[in-house]
Specification:
4 helices; mainly alpha
């Protein structure tokens, strides 16, 4: 049981590290590595098939949730609900709005 918790924690740490450095496409590369590494470790520790598949699924979910939490916390301050309320365009601007000449 300890090895399962360690694998889940390591997967979450990998998700956090990926969220700090890379875009979402990095999950496409990271997820198979996590699954294969966890499968090898679980096989060495003689986990059964159902327990192993469950732990691998939890590892993948933990890494992806950690990635999304990290990217949300990284970019949350850039997105403000006050941008739309005050009528001023944000940093990106509003390109598709025509000017009204009066």
């Amino acid at each position: 049981m300890t090895i399962a918790i360690v694998l889940i924690a390591a997967s979450a740490l990998a998700g956090i590290a990926t969220g700090c450095a890379f875009r979402i496409w990095a999950l496409v590369v990271l997820s198979p590595f996590i699954a294969i590494f966890a499968a090898i470790i679980l096989r060495v520790y003689d986990f059964g098939m159902m327990a192993g598949v469950t732990v691998i699924a939890i590892c993948l979910a933990a890494s992806q949730l950690a990635y999304f939490a990290t990217t949300y916390l990284r970019y949350a301050r850039d997105v403000s609900p006050h941008d739309e309320v005050d009528g001023e365009p944000g940093e990106r601007g509003e390109q598709k709005i025509r000017r009204e000449h009066k």
